[in-house]
Specification:
It contains 19 helices and 27 strands. By secondary structure, the protein is an alpha/beta fold. It starts with 12 loop residues before the first helix and ends with a helix.
Amino acid sequence: MTTVATVEPTTNFQNLRSPEFFISRELSWLEFNRRVLHEALDDRTPLLERLKFLGIFSSNLDEFFMVRVAGIKQQIAAQVSKRTPDGRAPEEHLEAISQTLRPMVIQQHEFFGQTLRSQLNRHGICLLDYTDLKAKPQDYLKTYFEEQIFPVLTPLAVDPGHPFPYISNLSLNLAVVVRDHQTKEEHFARVKVPKVLPRFVALPSSLFDDRENCHWIGVPLEQVIAHNLHFLFPGMDIQAHYPFRVTRNADLAVEEDEADDLMQAIEQELRRRRLGGSAVRIEIHAQTPPPVRAMLVEELGLTEADVYDVEGLLCLGDLMTFLSLPLPDLKDPVWSPVIPAALDILSRNHDDEEENAEDMFTLLRRQDQLIHHPYHSFSGTVQCFITHAAHDPNVLAIKMTLYRTSGDSPIVNALISAAENGKQVVVLVELKARFDEENNINWARKLENSGVHVVYGLVGLKTHTKVTLVVRREGGQIRRYCHIGTGNYNPKTARLYTDLGLLSSSEDLGADLSDLFNYLTGYSRQSSYRKLLIAPVNLRQRMIDLIRGEMEQASQGKPAHIIAKMNSLVDSTIIVALYEASQAGVKIDLIIRGICCLRPGLEGISDNIRVISIIGRFLEHSRIFFFQNGGPETMLLGSADWMPRNLDRRIEAVVPVEDEQIRTELKNILETSLADNRYAWDMQPDGSYIQRRPGRGQRQRSSHAIFMERALKSAE
């Protein structure tokens, strides 16, 4: 593995590493999720989209506990005392997470139960409680339970002859207390709410006298089960029932150095994940009595600090199912991604695939193309590029990295077609892409069975870069074409995430990608590249150099400006360099969707740094880096955030953009994002955020809406 370049400290280096200048990564992430929750609370968000954001908030928390909180608990168990840059030990982080998160969870459930549920009801989406139903719908549900639910259920007793059952990760359960008619003894049982059945049971509107115009009527599945428990426990008196839900450690731990077969090792870990690791959280109904609560906590190996009380429904992530209702007036207006005019002309003028591919490559020889998802169509641009290469007889080889893709991936199918057409196809499938491991294993096997050369990357490094290389014979010469992007080759997320991709025929970029793939698939210690910034080879040092370059410009009294757009800023060395640049007079604008461990606006430290976060209709995922550089400006895009894992433990690629028109487009994206006053939040020095609102006389500037308008114009 290539050694990561070190950065020489400056005179202020030690002072600027003081914990007071850093924000906790975990607490910053919770602030990000608070902004997600706010989109659900914001009455400007369409009703069903508000449900969506409630669901995203819950799903985000599930992953946070499965990975981040689980990791902190493992540190505590291992008696790790190392403090994070913000000065907290693991135990202090757990306490801070609890204090920050509990009011947010209460707010989420109160808002859904007291506000959103009634609004849904007014719009004909009637999520009722079983106890509110009259005789006819209750009789219907009794029959439905006997026919559709009862055969699936398995009640599990807990007594000396029946040990406490294993509670699977993220499962919804009922803790049931029954009393024996004969012995008068009370017993505990657990009933799992099966995931194979719909979480919300729909009811025919004909069962109601006053709800004929409802679009949907139903009740939660767990309530149907709870009110028919006598079928599961005949001869017993049902004393009480309380819903609860368990979250377990679900992070994979694969010792790559000891694994002869990485795929087999990950499959074994996946089997362990399905069972789940140790419990890290229990969500429980707030009215659960102390004896039942204490038993669950003890049997799961938890403490009272791991218990989250919930008033109302558990597992609000399931609310996402209501987005499938055909109610466009309650959702964001439908957006259909467009094809940029240059590429659309090709697809309209030619029907023959081979000729179309010829024209695609002719276009790229003439000029690079910037693709901006989800405003530009993935299928009409990136997917088109790969599909045409697969069928073009002059294409000799296709090489590609796959980090995540969809379950029915047209990209993978195109690669299989290319192999079947006799082309040399090489795909690096990242088996360690968290929560996509099983999907990627399945694709890897399918690709291998079709004759594709499949590799799994380098030991100790995730391959996170998003690149494709096409090698083509043209008039007796070899020419290379490439795509370098910020997002995954996934047509589904390409409709939801904002990402960028560069299509190019640059000889230098093509040669760099050839070197990169040799590094990934063979034995290579490639330490220099013509254009690309590659982690962990030269990306960290190059970014530091660019920041220092702006400091040099400022020291000479010249304009100096940095704009960086990314998902997260965590790396302490980069943060210190930005503090030094701010002290030197460099203007710094950061557009960071999620975690930001830097404190902006500190007097004498970060006066010149502004941080905004954009949370809205689309998930901000693109990475762009701008350095004024005294002219000509430096503009880059790529797959890496400024985090230790991206800079040191992943294969990442960042590409300098040299085409003047594309550089202008990227600068417009940055400037439009910085001017957003609908979805943008300004970060405060203490790590909190304030959402922007249009001032009096100002018009609303939604960056997402502006980009949609520009995309439509680009397609004309």
